Request: fold
Amino acid sequence: MTEGKIRKSNFELLRIIAMLMIVTSHYCVHGNQFSNAFNINFDGIFIHSGILGNLGVDIFFMISGYFLSKSQKPFKLHKALSLIFQVWLYSTSIALFLTLVFKLDIGKANLIKALFPTTFYEYSFFTVYLLIYALSPFLNLVINNISKKEYLILIAVFLLFVSLPETLLGRMYLDSYFIDGITCYFIGGGIEHLTFSSRKWGNFLVIAVSWIALGIVDSFLHNMSSQFDGIHFYSRIAIPTLLIAATLLSWFESANIKQNKCINFFAKHTFGIFLIHDNNYVRDLLWKRLLDNSNYHGLILVLDCLICVVSVFVCCALLDVIRSLVQDELEKLITWVYRKLRLPIIEL
Reply:
């Protein structure tokens, strides 16, 4: 999902990093090593520290808030329809391919859900994003018409009543993907009002060490009491996750990265990478069967993770190139048919 035709490579690189975080998290969470995630040993700490998906999702929401809040016309119906069409293409084609070629029995009910993925919340991230995208003109009225002091109070309210219970108690009293998305949208939209440490390698190291340390604490708490799910410091709305996501956004916003065709190419296909590899029916086939990591330990596990994550990222990006070409032709055909029928159309 993009917010303009001119792509700055600093934000595009951050998109790539965020998607790599999500793919890495799925390697750790959906793979066969997840049962070891709460062990206080090398494998457990590595798998637990690799649960970066919520951090990646928050970064994407914040990037959207950053760009959409500065747009004169943030919501464009033709763009929303194009995104819905992209999700539908992947959902239906993957379900039909696995059903017809691999004889996977997904059931009639699941097939109907695959045919209407946005309605049935098949990709929860996208459904929430679409709702926030539709509400962006109204959210922008808040961001663009309040003072810095009022903005900081608004963020403090979200942190106090939404993030703090999750961070300290491991539970959300207002548990909602939508609330998390709104929070990240507001943070991204007013990121210039927030002050962060300078962009130095030492600070990157501090963030990495802090993330690992929080994972170890999470594991200790989970092993002491089942009341703690073991990943609440890593949840989408937890204060550490929001703080790190906002810090990275601030750093990349001020980074001077010249336009890079390779970076922009892969960033353009990050949404497609997500739709392919995190499809409900691809997920288990990919991580539990094709890329089974149960027999790898130590540095071999780390190497396997790197190879698998990069391979999935690149392969899905190339597949999305094909999807993009097909969708462009289909959208041209749909537009042509509407014009022939002299129906009111929305240019795609």
Observations:
- Residues 298-340 form the longest helix (43 residues).
- The chain is about 70% helix and 0% strand.
- The chain has a mean pLDDT of 88.
